[in-house]
Specification:
The protein is of the alpha/beta class. It is built from eleven helices and ten strands. It starts with a strand and ends with a helix.
């Protein structure tokens, strides 16, 4: 027998978004893992719950706290995990604890609810059938450069989180990598009184960031890159000649060039047969 670890989504701004099931679960457990005991304590006080044992789990403490929390769970004590706002485990602590609990054979569940990622995406006006979430970009260095280069060629909608004081720098870097006319949507203060959705090009977004005092964490949603134009027959022939000069047969050259451009091998082979 063991307790259950339950990830509980909490409001990202509007307290009315707290589900009844989440309220009941936070009331029934004796241990609550959270990022900030003061913030979570105020939430539980608002909900009419008190007398909880709090365990701080943030980016600095999660690794060391896992063993303690797992021990409580193995002692048949139910534990709830919350973040400061939204769904825990998404760009917030929780991933390590979930993995540790599962490795110990403990039941893990979740109570769905508010999420800035999904809310911003569905009202962005950008394609939602396929998207990629990158969370917070690295602040500097080669990892940041590499990831921004990947984002620039990603054909799905890209969703990022960004702190207000780094918004302008990130938008400038994205404009440099993606071009001035790539569409972008900026969301902030979601579910709150001053909720804002800004839509435009990356060029105009940089101006927005330069002339607006950024407040609150942003969700940045970037339009996917356009599919590359199919190669012309002349480009295919040039690629075929390169392969033939390297010793490939016409059949092998056609296969390599077709794979390179992601096009039908039959057409490439027909072009290869016409080469002299």
């Amino acid at each position: 027998m063991s307790g259950t670890l339950t990830l509980v989504a909490t409001p990202i701004g509007n307290l009315s978004d707290m589900s009844q099931r989440a309220i009941d679960t936070l009331g029934s457990v004796t241990v609550v893992c959270c990022e900030d005991t003061r913030r979570t304590g105020l939430l539980l006080q608002h909900l009419g719950h008190s007398g909880k044992k709090y365990i701080v789990i943030n980016e600095h403490t999660e690794h060391d706290a896992c063993e303690h929390v797992v021990a409580l769970l193995l002692d048949d004590i139910d534990v709830a995990l919350v973040s400061d706002a939204g769904t825990p485990g998404i760009s917030d602590p929780g991933e390590r604890l979930v993995k540790a609990a599962l490795n110990a054979g403990i039941n893990v569940s979740a109570i769905p609810g508010p999420s800035a990622l999904t809310m911003a995406l569905v009202i962005s006006g950008l394609p939602t059938a396929r998207f990629v979430f990158e969370g917070f970009l690295p602040r500097s260095g080669s990892d940041r450069t590499r990831l921004i280069d990947e984002v620039a060629t990603e054909m799905r909608t890209v969703v990022l989180y960004e702190a207000p004081h780094r918004l302008e720098k990130t938008l400038v870097d994205l404009e440099t990598a993606c071009g001035a006319m790539r569409r972008v949507v900026l969301a902030r203060e979601l579910t709150k009184l001053h909720e804002e959705m800004w839509r435009g090009t990356l060029h105009d977004a940089v101006k927005y960031a330069q002339t607006t005092e950024p407040r609150g964490e942003y969700v940045v949603m970037l339009e996917g890159a356009k599919p590359p134009a199919p190669p012309t027959d002349e480009e295919i022939n040039d690629a075929l000649r390169d392969e033939l000069r390297n010793g490939s047969s016409k059949k092998d050259a056609a296969a390599k060039v077709a794979a390179k451009y992601g096009i039908q091998k039959r057409h490439v082979y027909e072009l290869a047969l016409m080469l002299k």
